[in-house]
Amino acid sequence: MVTGVGVDLSHISTISEVKGFCGNDQIEEALTGCDLVIIPAGIPRKPGMTRDDLFKINAGIVRDLVQSVAKYCPNAILNIISNPVNSTVPIAAEVMKKNDCYDPKKILGVTTLDVMRAKTFVAALRPEDIKDVTMCDVPVVGGHAGTTIIPLLSQVTPKLSKPFEGEELTALVTRIQNAGTEVVDAKAGAGSATLSMALAAENMATSCLRAMSGEKGIVECAYVASEVIPELAFFASKCELGENGVEKVLGCGEMDSYEKVQVSNAVAELKSSIDKGVEFANA
Ligand code: LMR
């Protein structure tokens, strides 16, 4: 039977069959047999809050859901959207470790909306180079909170005839980093991004499913277990997806000096968010 928000989803014309489940009594039925689990659950920000302010409530929600994943579909790939992503992904990893089913390739923090926003804003500023925003790419690395969101504007494709620099560059980077807050403020207490985030989640899930079905060459930015920055167990960068999740972490490519400083400035915050998640999961 389709219930709740499932009824809304069931009207979308795809080949998917929609079923709705609700509450802990139905979590076993919901998860058994899943190959891909998307976790967007949690409370949203209100104006004035950071994503980290959600930790107290969302950390426990993610821990408990991932505990059920470990029990009922331990081999599933996880797409984690619940904030603060910089901490909830490490929480998920620790829970899977405790249950002896951790596969670092299978836990992906969804940072796709950062990439979508970067593409949208870049295309608006450079219409002469980017005729079609869907053909544009902007890698975004680091994490998914404030200044840990680092767009690599030196790597925009198609190549820009006038690169971003000076005040235009700093204003654009700041806008991309604060884009989630822009939505939170605009919704004035009614939550954070839902529609753009739903499309971002769909893009990421579709990429995972295509790669799981054997399609090659699918690349997405995601916050994953990585050795790109030696001090950080998790970091967002380009990843090649495969049948089992992250086939290869591709890293940041050739960054310019401004981007290198941004990455190095983000290390302390990312490390503390990762440690906070790991400590919580093991407490
Ligand atoms: C976003 O980037 O829109 C989400 O992470 C939600 C938020 O709190 O900003």
UniProtKB/TrEMBL annotation:
<keyword id="KW-0576">Peroxisome</keyword>
<dbReference type="GO" id="GO:0009507">
    <property type="term" value="C:chloroplast"/>
</dbReference>
<feature type="domain" description="Lactate/malate dehydrogenase N-terminal">
    <location>
        <begin position="2"/>
        <end position="109"/>
    </location>
</feature>
<dbReference type="GO" id="GO:0006099">
    <property type="term" value="P:tricarboxylic acid cycle"/>
</dbReference>
<dbReference type="InterPro" id="IPR022383">
    <property type="entry name" value="Lactate/malate_DH_C"/>
</dbReference>
<dbReference type="GO" id="GO:0006108">
    <property type="term" value="P:malate metabolic process"/>
</dbReference>
<feature type="domain" description="Lactate/malate dehydrogenase C-terminal">
    <location>
        <begin position="111"/>
        <end position="280"/>
    </location>
</feature>
<feature type="binding site">
    <location>
        <position position="117"/>
    </location>
    <ligand>
        <name>substrate</name>
    </ligand>
</feature>
<keyword id="KW-0520">NAD</keyword>
<feature type="binding site">
    <location>
        <position position="51"/>
    </location>
    <ligand>
        <name>substrate</name>
    </ligand>
</feature>
<keyword id="KW-0816">Tricarboxylic acid cycle</keyword>
<feature type="binding site">
    <location>
        <position position="83"/>
    </location>
    <ligand>
        <name>substrate</name>
    </ligand>
</feature>
<comment type="similarity">
    <text>Belongs to the LDH/MDH superfamily. MDH type 1 family.</text>
</comment>
<dbReference type="InterPro" id="IPR001236">
    <property type="entry name" value="Lactate/malate_DH_N"/>
</dbReference>
<dbReference type="GO" id="GO:0030060">
    <property type="term" value="F:L-malate dehydrogenase (NAD+) activity"/>
</dbReference>
<dbReference type="InterPro" id="IPR001557">
    <property type="entry name" value="L-lactate/malate_DH"/>
</dbReference>
<feature type="binding site">
    <location>
        <position position="58"/>
    </location>
    <ligand>
        <name>NAD(+)</name>
    </ligand>
</feature>
<dbReference type="Pfam" id="PF02866">
    <property type="entry name" value="Ldh_1_C"/>
</dbReference>
<feature type="active site" description="Proton acceptor">
    <location>
        <position position="144"/>
    </location>
</feature>
<dbReference type="InterPro" id="IPR015955">
    <property type="entry name" value="Lactate_DH/Glyco_Ohase_4_C"/>
</dbReference>
<dbReference type="InterPro" id="IPR001252">
    <property type="entry name" value="Malate_DH_AS"/>
</dbReference>
<dbReference type="GO" id="GO:0005777">
    <property type="term" value="C:peroxisome"/>
</dbReference>
<dbReference type="InterPro" id="IPR010097">
    <property type="entry name" value="Malate_DH_type1"/>
</dbReference>
<feature type="binding site">
    <location>
        <begin position="81"/>
        <end position="83"/>
    </location>
    <ligand>
        <name>NAD(+)</name>
    </ligand>
</feature>
<keyword id="KW-0329">Glyoxylate bypass</keyword>
<feature type="binding site">
    <location>
        <position position="45"/>
    </location>
    <ligand>
        <name>substrate</name>
    </ligand>
</feature>
<comment type="subunit">
    <text>Homodimer.</text>
</comment>
<dbReference type="Pfam" id="PF00056">
    <property type="entry name" value="Ldh_1_N"/>
</dbReference>
<keyword id="KW-0560">Oxidoreductase</keyword>
<protein>
    <recommendedName>
        <fullName>Malate dehydrogenase</fullName>
        <ecNumber>1.1.1.37</ecNumber>
    </recommendedName>
</protein>
<dbReference type="GO" id="GO:0006097">
    <property type="term" value="P:glyoxylate cycle"/>
</dbReference>
<feature type="binding site">
    <location>
        <position position="197"/>
    </location>
    <ligand>
        <name>NAD(+)</name>
    </ligand>
</feature>
<dbReference type="InterPro" id="IPR036291">
    <property type="entry name" value="NAD(P)-bd_dom_sf"/>
</dbReference>
